[in-house]
Amino acid sequence: MKLYQRNFLLILFIAFGSIFGWLIFISNSSPTKNLSIIASSIHPIARKLIEDKTETLSNDLIVASPVKQPIVIDSKNVDPLAESRSVSKPKRIRSITCKINGEYKINCLKLMSGKETSVYIPFSFIHKYFEIGGKIVNQKSQDEYFEWNHSYSKIFYPDQPYDPADVFLWFGNYNVEFRDRVKCISAIDNVPLSTQWYPAGHLYPTQICQYGLSHFNKNLTSAPSERIQLINDGIVSDFHVDHNFIVDFKKNYLIVKDSRIDLKNNHTNYLIGQLDMKLIGNASITFVMFNIQTQQISYVLYSTIDDVIVIDTEDNQITYGLGSKAFKRGWFHFTRDLLVDLYKGYFISDRKRNNYYVSYIQIDGTVYIKNLALKTSAHEEFAMAAGDWLMRNQNAQGGWRIQVDRKLSKGLLVIKKGWHSAMAQGHAISLLTRLYRATNNTKYLETAKKALNIFEIESYKNGVKAILFDKYIWYEEYPTVPSIFVLNGFIYSLFGLYDLSKACNDQICQKSSQFYDEGIRSLESALSLYDSGSGSFYDLRHLSLGIAPNLARWDYHSTHINQLLYLYTITRNDLFKTVADRWIAYMKGHRSSHN
Ligand SMILES: *[C@@H]1O[C@H](CO)[C@@H](O)[C@H](O)[C@H]1NC(C)=O
Ligand SMILES: *[C@@H]1O[C@H](CO)[C@@H](O)[C@H](O)[C@H]1NC(C)=O
Ligand SMILES: *[C@@H]1O[C@H](CO)[C@@H](O)[C@H](O)[C@H]1NC(C)=O
Ligand SMILES: *[C@@H]1O[C@H](CO)[C@@H](O)[C@H](O)[C@H]1NC(C)=O
Ligand SMILES: *[C@@H]1O[C@H](CO)[C@@H](O)[C@H](O)[C@H]1NC(C)=O
């Protein structure tokens, strides 16, 4: 029996001999635990069945029998079958082949107990077949239990009404720079380089905005950054100075040539390197990082090369290009998250900031330095870096072009590089209006206002505006011809339009308000088209192309829900709340009822 158990991740208990099955509850509660407490932690359909005790059942995932009480297996007992034996009658068990819809054959277990015969199906099969997640939690401990999750995704409930002057949605939960599809943060542009759709990397405006917005939120919500000042206006502190330092007290900077700055103390968690510098010819600055767990030394180097990133795995060294003309820039401000920069070399996997410190800083060539500091975070700087990139790179039409081809629907749809995205435009506005409010710098607002222009240009003319059913205006995340009406990108663009509508009172901001209202009306009319009955559709390509629908995977489904919950806080439109609630239920396996 032990052997069989080892062969199966978890076995699902289905009863025959009754049209209804049994539902087994594996939890850490004791067998005597009050039914209502157990019931509150289980699937609502199952709960209803247990409560009613008479049931009509149309659900295809969970079936329950007319049980008086769910079988609760005490996790303290190593042998769940022995435990159920003590609850009911003696059982016999043997292997049996399961034939699944004539498509698969798998090994199952057959359990016989008195008049009843039941079959256990390995969860590893259920997991793949129904795309349902499950894992054993607290393995081998007293609290061990099996956790079944229909969806792997999480809902972010708004904790306050959406406010254009405050945090942007739930984006503070994002760590954009650590995403796999971020190649690295370019030290030339100071924004992420995306490998999405183009492995060599491109500056993807949507991702750049998400990077900025996530740091904008974190600036407002996380603990203040702590700072260790190493060089302050030419005054040196907290490190050992060697003879290659030229300390000229008449100047407010330090001239450092081919030397190393040894820190007096090991400051774990201070992994933001920040300074003002001026390079005299080719020069480089290296932050030498030490991991206290693995004792590994790694080198993060910034030098006057044009490559964005060069990885030398053998020597644990990663080099970021500052551009070959960096020495022509004169003084420039430099802020880097050294851990992110190190991580993108792929020779570390540990992201715990407390496991690292900067061991020393090496200068090769000649560099003028002032205000050298190590900090624990730099959210403000990173949010501004994204905003500044947007200001520097906006085109005459007010857009940020995506410079890679985008193929959708297995190549049925292709958008040639140089396209605009309503999502990028909307995100950019959301970031820029917030930076404007935070700094009073009107350049941010001007850039945001210019971005509105793209919303007026049709998607087939390299803009983003599409029309659904010849009637409803839709802003396209991917401006394909024909239009496919991606839902999440459209809703993100509406948040941008809303933000601009509240940022000023002039004609442009009023126009933004009008675009937002039109968009909300489209959403009200079309939202139900995205409901699949057990999830949501990512877009309407089945409508435009007559092909199979494109179901939203759980993280996009939950994005839809999050967006609707936040939109509801602005509009108080019950439709958004009702749909969000129904879609949340889909994430727990509920389906809309059938005829
Ligand atoms: C999975 O289910 C458990 C308990 O039912 C819940 O606490 C957890 O948040 C769920 N995880 C996800 C990703 O939904
Ligand atoms: C957020 O930015 C402000 C400046 O706008 C700064 O004073 C503050 O320290 C920052 N907070 C965090 C947590 O980064
Ligand atoms: C800092 O760590 C190094 C090992 O990398 C060790 O040799 C040195 O003694 C430490 N210094 C302090 C001040 O703890
Ligand atoms: C910097 O180095 C490159 C190659 O190593 C060289 O071609 C270039 O002339 C150098 N520039 C200066 C200003 O020394
Ligand atoms: C921006 O201007 C407003 C109104 O003049 C003022 O209250 C606020 O302090 C200013 N904020 C900044 C960051 O300068």
TrEMBL record:
Cited Pfam families: C5-epim_C, Glce_b_sandwich
Biochemical pathway: Glycan metabolism; heparan sulfate biosynthesis; Glycan metabolism; heparin biosynthesis
Enzyme class: isomerase
Cellular-component GO terms for this entry: Golgi apparatus
GO biological process, one term: carbohydrate metabolic process
Localization terms from the record: Endomembrane system; Membrane
Membrane association type: Single-pass membrane protein; Single-pass type II membrane protein
Enzyme Commission number(s) from the entry: 5.1.3.17
Residue ranges crossing the lipid bilayer per the database entry: 7-26
Major site of localization recorded for this protein: membrane
Keyword field: Isomerase, Membrane, Signal-anchor, Transmembrane, Transmembrane helix
Family assignment from sequence similarity: Belongs to the D-glucuronyl C5-epimerase family.
Protein name: heparosan-N-sulfate-glucuronate 5-epimerase
Protein's organism: Dermatophagoides farinae (American house dust mite)
